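task queued by scheduler; priority normal; single chain, no ligands, no partner chains; default sampling; output format set to structure tokens
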Amino acid sequence: MSGQDHRTTQYQIPYTLIILTDHTVHSQLFKSSINVIIIIIIINHIISACPTLAKEKYIKRHDRVCAQLHFNVCKETGVKLDTNHWHEHVPKSVETGQGGNVTVLWNQQVQTDRTIPNNKPDIITRDNEKRTCMLIDVAISGDRNVIKREAEKVLKYKDLTIKIQRMWNVKTKVIPVIIGATGTISKSFRKYVSNIPGNHELRNYRKQPYWALHTYFGKC
């Protein structure tokens, strides 16, 4: 084993599977660089680009991260919760906290007077007292694409951000929460998440994608 931290290795697979690096040669299989490339391509396909897994498995890992974020936001803003554990939390479409000053929307379209195609971020928080709004959108991507996906999310909701600022008279920002399929995050990840109300253990978010990896093999 190379001894490198699986969170920062270029090709990240949990230790229970296998870690591939440019310097890892542990069997006859890895003596050929072509074999290594083929294995990397196969694994990358399984963890982030398989149409079969996208129908259920990818959605489930995405929703687990969203549910954890939603739970932490609700807990911080005084929303009455049915459980003390995020993994038992079932998000509701609309929640209110802090005496009605904070509204938390889950998977809801924003109604506008003109058509805006991208009008349904995963979570929306609106603070009427502070006059702020956050559009939180989550994605679990291939490890090499986390920075690219962050930029895409911000651009995706640009029109909605402008429209909400005008309609609701609140300062609005997009918060992309992008995690690589094996837990990779960008340098901006902590900064983005720090804007979200709640106590957020970053390692718990990063665990969600790769905890599910062992269920993918044999199903793609």
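post-processing summary
- The radius of gyration is 19 Å.
- The chain has one domain: 56-215.
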